[in-house]
Amino acid sequence: MQLEIIFLGTGGSWPTVKRNVSAIAIKRGGEILLFDCGEGTQRQIQKSKLSYMQISKIFITHYHGDHFLGLPGLIQTMQLNDREKPLYIYGPRGLRNLISQILSLGYFTPTYEIVATELNDNCSIKFDGYTIKTLKVDHNVPTLAYSLEEDERPGRFNKEKALELGIPEGPLFSKLQKGKTIEINGKKITPDMILGPKRPGRKIVISGDTRPLEKLVDFAKNADALIHDATFHSELEETAVEYGHSTAKQAAEIAKRANVERLFLTHISPRYMDSKPLEEEARELFANSIVPKDFQSFEIRLKK
Amino acid sequence: MQLEIIFLGTGGSWPTVKRNVSAIAIKRGGEILLFDCGEGTQRQIQKSKLSYMQISKIFITHYHGDHFLGLPGLIQTMQLNDREKPLYIYGPRGLRNLISQILSLGYFTPTYEIVATELNDNCSIKFDGYTIKTLKVDHNVPTLAYSLEEDERPGRFNKEKALELGIPEGPLFSKLQKGKTIEINGKKITPDMILGPKRPGRKIVISGDTRPLEKLVDFAKNADALIHDATFHSELEETAVEYGHSTAKQAAEIAKRANVERLFLTHISPRYMDSKPLEEEARELFANSIVPKDFQSFEIRLKK
């Protein structure tokens, strides 16, 4: 199943000509999960290859305007385009109140269901094929990091062993691969006899706005992608601390220690017309660092 | 004084790749008045030549999302950029409640003053150099049209007459032009002796979302610019009626009967990738019709 990260808004605080405010889409098969939804996200979606009608769930990291003010417009536009499916929204405490406020702005009455679920630190919600986990991070208001972790995949199929056991190539192979027990010559063959150890699914972690946080190292352990707050260059480390953010260098340290595959630096301060210096200081510590542009997308491939 | 209309969002209902939702700026000297503020307006302003810090007053026509959902983000960004001056917001009844809702979304506390004033039909508010008038129009929710009318200008200076009366060219001319009485050779000269009849200032009318309305003909009488709802082509006149909008043709009829100088067709439905047919049907009735693109600006010159 294809898994892709599409950066819809990579700027922090307020939009600039180059970067809109926070929004990250994760497309997994036919489903789109949206992480944060700053003002203008519905239009960013329209300018991308995505369709907002495919969004099933929205996860908000925290309630600073640049992370959620795109919700009312998106919700209303979904309705104007005849959405009937429920929309599930998740976020830290305060979400139910926020959504009820949002739904009562101006003349608007939702005709489809909007389900708001408040999450705490260390939550784990199982969906079809993946789990979303939360971690309370270190910002100036309650903020959650999210981890999307796919279910384990079946182990590698040992073809030689299967042939040794007298199983003919064909439909029986496929049954075993799908985890079903088969019978051949009156003998039961269970999948674990043929398949190697289960293999982990893919993992994407989104830090939300946060100061560098020890717990994130474990939370992001071995992730295929870590999307981390990198609002400032390390020259402005004090400012970063004051406002509850990280520098690009600090994000790279977390990525390195967490042994992630790739680091995406985001929530870039509007002061940086050129984000190269942030990317460069991150790469000194962690080579596979990138500051994505709005609309850039990255496929997360299954490890062999 | 320069007077300019800058179209920041010319689309209706929801944003498209080409057109953002409603927002029109009028720049008069160093002051910017904003009419409607759909989602993403702050970014449209950044992409234009305007500065949102110059916005002194915002007029909202009605409380459908595509006309006001850019307010919370704009208000917050003004604060992040250290606004200290009060911001004056005007709109139909319900504004005070709306603004108090907007100011309590998420973690935000305004540090500058936001003054919300509710307006009725037929209001007239005098500002320095111009008056804003309102007209209740015919939409599905309470909606106001706005008219910006500059103060009358002094009449034309009759140079010959001035010289005849023995006034030497120079500072005394300028005093008379500014409406001051002067004395020359012990004789009082009042401005009305030298100046022709007062000349009207410029007038710009914004219809808001509305079905074609008889009263708008008078309201927009002799305006230099009428910015009118033209959501649909006349092929969809029934749809326009149902949703409380006008067709391009109907807007042109109003413009013609009101004897305006120029007609700007706006609030174009997202269904029209190409707005040429709307412009064409308007021009058949009223030649000086245009469907502006986002970011197009038009100077409104003083009549000689």
Please name the defining characteristics of this protein:
homodimer, 304 residues, alpha/beta, Metallo-beta-lactamase, Chain A, 7-stranded mixed beta sheet
Report on this structure.
The structure is a homodimer of 304-residue chains. Chain A has two domains: 3-153 and 199-299, Ribonuclease Z/Hydroxyacylglutathione hydrolase-like (Metallo-beta-lactamase, Chain A, 4-Layer Sandwich), CATH 3.60.15.10; 159-193, no CATH class. Chain A has helices at 41-47, 65-68, 71-80, 95-102, 159-164, 171-177, 191-194, 214-219, 237-243, 248-258, 276-285; strands at residues 3-9, 23-28, 31-35, 55-59, 87-91, 114-118, 124-127, 130-136, 144-150, 182-184, 187-189, 203-206, 225-229, 262-266, 289-290, 297-299. The mean pLDDT of chain A is 96. The first copy, chain A, has eleven helices and 16 strands. The two termini of chain A are 14 Å apart. Chain A is 26% helix and 25% strand. Chain A has a seven-stranded mixed sheet. A seven-stranded mixed sheet of chain A has the order 7-8-9-12-13-14-15. Chain A binds chain B through residues 13-17, 20-21, 39-40, 42-43, 46-47, 62-66, 68-70, 72-73, 76-77, 80-81, 94, 98, 101-102, 104-108, 141, and chain B through 13-17, 20-21, 39-40, 42-43, 46-47, 62-66, 68-70, 72-73, 76-77, 80-81, 94, 98, 101-102, 104-108, 141.
Summary?
Two copies of one chain form a homodimer. Chain A has 304 residues and is α/β, with parallel strands linked by helices.
